[in-house]
């Protein structure tokens, strides 16, 4: 075990921050860390927007419904961004194939993954500095509005936000699936072998929720997933992204 | 600057490894690190396949065309995985909405990002242990074959591989875009302001390629992108994923 692995294993999402803002130097080092992540074929297909304008933060918090989108030490929005490729001057016949590529699901994956890897580097770097973070998928509650607020052009979409700052609470670490569920050897291990592990995990989690120091309740992973997935979830995201000329085929 | 940030900033992709295999204990801690990454709404929508069977490694190396898919200390394949949600027993009317969600682009993003965040934690943890890594998007050169080789069910797709092991070369760090290209304040900064930065970066990169210690050439970022994007890139990935019941709407 070393410092880095301790930092990684100590991760929990932080949702309450002190009033202290990040310094420019902290932001610089965190963005530098983000940029050093691997990038598919050197594409660097992402843009990070640092939001400090109180009015913009307020509007984004309305979309997410989460107060910590406004109240934090720094707010970032990670965008998947193929627009720099699209802007390249090329010959007409090259340009045609380039745009076909840019509209493919493959390039949608490339940009999404590039943004995600950069974000996770930023998260780990921040946590190593004693800061806390929370990913904000909730910005996709109204992805079109977020895109409008941040003035995102075509070939760019807002993937998620990240609230960052000095922690003002110490949440417990939530259990994860046992390694056997997540890690398979050589080939995928199908249900029903897997079902038993999930049932065991439900039992573990029920114990966790009934014993923890706050928000005690009777709950399992399976129940949470049903509650989440039984109502339509952001079904406008797909059509919105197609409107950005991405993930069209 | 601390050890963790030093590890992150020191990243370069490693493509030549010694013969030494990772120990079970190393693999365990790396997977544990992966699992501690943030996950959207606690979904944990990914599966990691550790490939040790020489025949399977050989087949995957054929798909990627990269020798280090076979020759490494450990090979992982990160899969986006919504199948555990799909396997949950629920009432018929709940089930219908659940499947509609699972087929959405939103949930495709959720699973892809979950897998990517886990992978980047694994990468950083490995590098902190003195190991090197290389992401293998090249497995998507024939995504259907990879899925067949690894016996992936519906609602699961192979996102990328990761070769890991003890480095047997020390490549130079490749430059990244200046921070101004990647990091914008409050709103997206459109071209042409951006164009100038990219041109400057092309000049920087030309200098880098002409001065480095191996594979000296005359090249720029723009030229590389045109070479890559002017030929069709994995246009079968989109239809393949739809066939897995994901990213359909």
TrEMBL record, chains A, B:
Q: According to the UniProt entry, what is the EC number of this protein?
A: 1.5.1.38
Q: Please state which protein family the record places this protein in.
A: Belongs to the flavin oxidoreductase frp family.
MF terms from GO for this chain are: FMN reductase (NADPH) activity
Keyword annotations: Flavoprotein, FMN, NADP, Oxidoreductase
Q: Which residue ranges does the record assign to the Nitroreductase domain?
A: 8-166
Highest taxon above the source species: Bacteria
Point out the gene that encodes the protein. Answer: nfsA
Q: Which InterPro entries match?
A: Flavin_OxRdtase_Frp (IPR016446), Nitroreductase (IPR029479), Nitroreductase-like (IPR000415)
Q: Does the keyword DNA damage apply?
A: no
The record ties this protein, via Pfam families, to: Nitroreductase
The organism is Cerasibacillus terrae
> Would you tell me the protein name for this molecule?
Oxygen-insensitive NADPH nitroreductase
The record, for PANTHER family, names: NADPH-DEPENDENT OXIDOREDUCTASE, OXYGEN-INSENSITIVE NADPH NITROREDUCTASE
């Amino acid at each position: 075990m070393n410092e880095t692995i301790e930092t990684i294993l100590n991760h929990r999402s932080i949702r309450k921050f002190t009033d202290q803002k990040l310094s420019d130097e902290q932001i610089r080092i965190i963005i530098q860390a983000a940029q050093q992540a691997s990038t598919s074929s050197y594409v660097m297909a992402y843009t990070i927007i640092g939001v400090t304008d109180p009015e913009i933060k307020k509007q984004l918090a309305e979309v997410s419904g989460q107060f910590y989108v406004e109240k934090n030490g720094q707010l970032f929005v990670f965008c998947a961004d193929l627009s720099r490729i699209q802007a390249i001057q090329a010959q007409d016949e090259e340009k045609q194939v380039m745009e076909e590529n840019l509209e493919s699901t493959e390039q949608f994956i490339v940009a999404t993954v590039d943004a995600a890897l950069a974000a996770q580097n930023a998260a780990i770097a921040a946590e190593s500095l004693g800061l806390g973070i929370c990913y904000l998928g909730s910005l996709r509650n109204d992805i079109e509005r977020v895109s409008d607020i941040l003035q995102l052009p075509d070939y760019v979409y807002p993937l998620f936000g990240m609230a960052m700052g000095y922690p003002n609470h110490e949440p417990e670490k939530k259990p994860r699936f046992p390694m056997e569920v997540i890690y398979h050897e050589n080939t995928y291990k199908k249900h029903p072998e897997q079902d038993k592990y999930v049932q065991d995990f439900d039992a573990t989690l029920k114990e966790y929720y009934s014993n923890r120091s706050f928000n005690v309740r009777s709950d399992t992973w399976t129940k949470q997933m049903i509650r989440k997935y039984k109502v339509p979830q952001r079904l406008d995201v797909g059509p919105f992204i197609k409107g950005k000329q991405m993930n069209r085929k």
